[in-house]
Specification:
106 residues; two-stranded antiparallel ribbon; mainly alpha; 49% helix; 2 helices; rod-shaped
């Protein structure tokens, strides 16, 4: 991990206090200057944007996977229409039906 130089002043960001109802200045020391303001590594606007972008990308990938699972499940259930339940694997049918019901609620 690379070392960054401590600027000797606290970060300029306001953060929630321990009670979650008020704000105070971040107590971490600033390590960089952007737009004439000093920031610690956590509150650096570029780093914050990168973390948020990564989070959004992960959420989008998870949502795409869930959508594909719902589509696949619906297709399986439609394919089973007309086949007597006794002829199907009971455990599989129960899992498919419960997943289908869960996907309706999403």
């Amino acid at each position: 991990m690379s070392k960054t130089k401590n600027l000797g002043v606290p970060c300029c960001e306001q953060v929630h206090n321990s009670f979650g109802v008020g704000f105070h200045q971040c107590q971490r020391f600033a390590v960089l200057v952007r737009d004439k303001r000093v920031y610690c590594k956590q509150h650096d606007p570029v780093a914050v944007e990168a973390r948020q972008q990564a989070s959004h990308e992960k959420y989008a990938a998870d949502e795409a996977r869930r959508k594909a699972d719902r589509i696949r499940t619906i297709a399986c259930i439609r394919a089973c229409v007309g086949i007597p339940t006794e002829e199907l694997d009971p455990g599989l049918v129960k899992r498919l039906l419960s997943f289908f019901e869960d996907s309706k609620n999403d």
